[in-house]
């Protein structure tokens, strides 16, 4: 440093410039790279996380499709297989058994009558099960829950039950904290105008 610079600047200021200000400049250059790299890293991480979840979803959908295909295959093949096994059993149980057209058509009519009853029983069981509604649900604090399902599966009914808009016959509904409900369309509670506006709050 020149003599004039030494006179204009104290020793403390020079020490601050060398030890503090230069460190701040270095940190600023490092921080500049974090400003553009951090959002990029976050985007890449979210992309790979979504890709992983999508891969798991496709695997489950593939498995469900295979099970559905196997179920429908057995559904349509079962009448043919039952008829074939009945014919084989009839011809092998006795040496005197003759499978003539009269016997064959009689067996086919009986099998068709049985098939209708056997196919309607599972559907009837599903109808009976859908009549009874029993929900046991526990949601921990801080967890994001999505409710999905086909039309008429009870998504809106579940939300209405949590809001206390459905009649509860037995059991308990315990909710900690406050509720903010944003429906797809405007709605009002079965209460007075004042209670609909204030939502149990005082003026």
TrEMBL record:
For whether the record's keyword set contains Ribosomal protein, the answer is no
Principal location listed in the UniProt entry: membrane
Q: Keyword set for this entry?
A: ATP-binding, Membrane, Nucleotide-binding, Repeat, Transmembrane, Transmembrane helix
Question: Per its record, what are the GO molecular function terms?
Answer: ATP binding; ATP hydrolysis activity; ATPase-coupled transmembrane transporter activity
Gene3D superfamilies referenced in this protein's UniProt entry, alphabetically: ABC transporter type 1, transmembrane domain, P-loop containing nucleotide triphosphate hydrolases
Q: Show where the ABC transporter domain sits.
A: 135-185
Q: Which GO terms describe its cellular component?
A: endomembrane system; membrane
Q: Where in the cell?
A: Endomembrane system
Q: A Pfam family in this protein? A: ABC_tran
Membrane as UniProt keyword: yes
Q: Which InterPro entries match?
A: ABC1_TM_sf, ABC_transporter-like_ATP-bd, ABC_transporter_C-like, P-loop_NTPase
Q: What is this protein called?
A: ABC transporter domain-containing protein
Organism, as annotated: Paralvinella palmiformis
Q: What is the lineage of its organism?
A: Eukaryota, Metazoa, Spiralia, Lophotrochozoa, Annelida
């Amino acid at each position: 440093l020149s003599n004039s610079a030494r006179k204009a600047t104290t020793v403390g200021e020079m020490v601050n410039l060398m030890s503090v200000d230069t460190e701040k400049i270095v940190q600023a250059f490092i921080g500049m790279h974090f400003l553009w790299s951090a959002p990029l890293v976050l985007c890449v991480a979210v992309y790979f996380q979504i890709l992983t979840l999508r891969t798991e979803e496709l695997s489950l959908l593939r498995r469900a499709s295979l099970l559905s295909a196997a179920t429908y295959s057995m559904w349509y093949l079962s009448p043919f297989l039952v008829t074939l096994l009945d014919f084989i059993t009839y011809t092998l149980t006795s040496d005197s058994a003759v499978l003539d057209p009269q016997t064959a058509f009689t067996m086919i009519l009986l099998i068709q009558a049985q098939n209708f009853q056997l196919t309607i029983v599972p559907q009837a069981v599903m109808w009976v099960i859908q009549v009874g509604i029993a929900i046991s649900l526990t949601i921990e604090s801080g967890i994001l829950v999505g409710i999905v399902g086909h039309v008429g599966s009870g998504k809106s009914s579940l939300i209405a039950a949590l809001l206390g808009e459905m009649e509860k016959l037995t059991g308990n509904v315990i909710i900690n904290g406050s509720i903010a409900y944003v429906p797809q369309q405007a709605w009002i509670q079965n209460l007075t105008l004042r209670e609909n506006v204030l939502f149990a709050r005082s003026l």
